[in-house]
Known about the structure:
Layout: E1 2-4, H1 5-15, E2 20-23, H2 30-38, E3 42-45, H3 49-63, E4 67-71, H4 73-89, E5 93-99, H5 115-119, E6 125-128, H6 135-147, E7 153-159, H7 160-164, E8 166-168, H8 190-202, E9 206-210, H9 219-229, E10 233-235, E11 250-253, E12 270-274, E13 295-300, E14 314-317, H10 320-331, H11 342-357, H12 368-375, E15 384-388, H13 390-399, E16 408-409, H14 420-430, E17 436-441, H15 442-448, H16 452-457, E18 463-468, H17 473-483, H18 496-503, E19 506-510, H19 513-524, E20 530-535, H20 542-554
Parallel strand pairs: 2-3, 2-4, 4-5, 5-7, 6-7, 9-10, 9-12, 10-11, 12-13, 13-14, 15-16, 15-17, 17-18, 18-20, 19-20
Antiparallel strand pairs: 1-8
Amino acid sequence: MKLKGYEIITRSLKRAGATTVFTIAGDHTLPLMDHMADEGFIFIDVRHEQAAVDMANAYGRITGRPGVTMFTTPGHANAIPGFTFAYHMETPVVNITGSATQDRLGLGASQEIDQVGMAKPVTKGSWLLGDPLRAPEYISRAFRTALNGRRGPVHLTIPLDVQEATVSADQVTDRTMEYPPSRGRAHAALADIRAAVDLLQAAERPLIIAANGAYTVQREDTERLIETTGIPVFTEQSARGVIPDDHPLCAGYSDGRVNDAAQSIHEADVLLLLGKKLDYTISFGGPPTIGAETKIIQVEPAWEQVATARDVELGIIADPGAVVRQLADEAATRSWPAHPMISSLKSATADQVATLGKRTSKSDQLHAMDLHSTVKQLIDDDTCLIFEGADFGFYGASYHPAHKQHRWITNGTLGMLGWGVSYGIGAQVALPDSRVVVFTGDGGFGFNGFEVDTALRHNLPVVFIVGNDRVWGIDYHQQDQLFGKVVATTMLPTRFDIIAEGIGAHGELVETREQLLPALKRAFSAGKPAVVNVMIEPSPSPLTEWIIETKSKQDG
């Protein structure tokens, strides 16, 4: 019996649990795509390769299974920004790109570029599969690499001659390893668990931050830990919602630039970091975010992230999900004092939400908070909220709580724009029974807004809400307040609603308060992708205000 290379690749992808591919078809992937379609793979075809990776990014983060993308050679170049974002988001994505046959590579082959080299800096691994018999090995390696340790994207170049090669079936050795959503259950040494609990028990003001590396942490285990110890927890990135913000011991988003309660993190005398890097978002583990004398317990799935920017009191290299269960078990054998910060943390959050809710426009135009407070009437705990950067999105990130894991998403540490529309589409693929709402500015929507066409073709009823303030918000306000003039940060009042209608989606223009709620209700009930284009006044969000205040202080 003979097998083609594309049959072996398809079989290997099936064994890895892949079912859905985000793609744009091209010459160098046609044989593989043709066979995969015969084998029942679902293809979500898009309008730009970056958007496909953003969709796979959302799919991978929400499902815990790698999102799969597939492109031809020039499409690979378009996909690099998407890899970069997924790398920062630490999302498992497996990209497959075709190429010309290997006998012509290096000779000026059709559309030839160094795909493997281009992808290396923004992936966890990048390889060329040069032999169809090694497809099971390489695909197994790709999925394991994407999922293991701190997750992330990987890349495989598979030339046409590999896809179309013919080999004997008895030469093929399948890899039968399955790829569960989590990376396993690697427990910590009992001595380390007891040492960590000793530190937490002896502290007066211990706090917990659960972050991107804590994606295996389960709600029931985390609740047991914090309810036993009485220690408040902050969450961020993929851990948002693992404990709902309305839990008595959840202090919300861990970013003090967006959440006022998080500005109290510096008061902690012991800080338990669950999959949280010592990066710029927490001042590299020091002041002003973390006290110079604060003792840090760092639980990491990847050893290379432990004690990077400063020494830590205790480093535990293990699966954070398993460690949380171990900590909860050990904590249950001890007695715990009342925590002195719980009331003040909850008050800070409540005060901030109340203050934001009272913000109004200084003109006849709508304010971003008019929109966010109205949307809040129409969503439930299962609604997936995506906040794409800039002022409009960060007003929402400061205002809307996270109720459930993978239902509250912002742009992480990269600060990239242009991902929101496509990410929302990928989220809807992963959450077919949930409402997905994307909050994006007019700047961000302009990058990949035409992917509304993709949502329409694949019956994905995402609601895209555009806060149209006609400026590149964060930079516009910095220029205005710090430099006294604005440069290259203004835009036109684009009618994105008309563009949406032209595509065939639902479109709404909102210019007054009276129009807002009815327009949103129509969009939510449209049964197809909807773009609500809301004209709002430029207004610096809490994040922008923090940036301007910080820079003003630095400048004296």
